[in-house]
Design brief:
mainly alpha; 8 helices; elongated
């Protein structure tokens, strides 16, 4: 049980990162940031990304199958747009000027900006899969590099079957 809890916490932890301290944005910057986030479809993108991450974690660790409803409820409560909206607004408002936010909003409201916003979840998922396939294809090299760093002997090659 402890292993399942640790795996579940680790799986959800990948989407949580501490944000650096920022100057307090103005009300106008916050409003402009909110408009941009909505034009970018961030609520939908975030929720889809979290669900994809959970699905990937459950596929990678089948022992989590029995607690996936708990993981999804946890994500809904703490890693959803509703839970993180104000922090997202703060991040964008603290990073960009009001004018920059408005220019980006104009782009995201254009046809090509909307196409990008709609495609972002799929592009992110495909990029994540690409990275996973690359790691899997070179996993033996990674393990060898880690063993070398830790001063451990290289793993013996698998024995040939008669």
């Amino acid at each position: 049980m402890k292993m399942i809890l640790s795996a579940a916490a680790a799986a959800l932890g990948v989407v949580l990162a501490a944000a650096p301290a920022r100057a307090q944005p103005s009300a106008q910057q916050r409003a402009a940031a909110t408009e941009l986030l909505m034009a970018m479809h961030v609520p939908e993108v975030l929720d889809a990304s979290v669900q994809q991450m959970l699905d990937q974690q459950i596929r990678a660790a089948p022992e989590l199958q029995g607690v996936q409803d708990v993981m999804r409820e946890f994500a809904r409560r703490f890693v959803s747009w509703e839970a993180l909206r104000e922090q997202y607004v703060d991040i964008y408002a603290g990073t960009f000027t009001e004018d920059e936010l408005r220019q980006m909003t104009d782009f995201y409201r254009s046809d090509v900006g909307q196409k990008l916003a709609r495609a972002t979840p799929r592009l992110m998922a495909e990029g994540a899969e690409l990275g996973q396939r690359a790691v899997q294809a070179h996993r033996a090299e990674l393990e060898q590099m880690i063993r070398a760093r830790l001063g451990q002997p290289a793993a013996a090659p698998p024995a040939a079957r008669p």
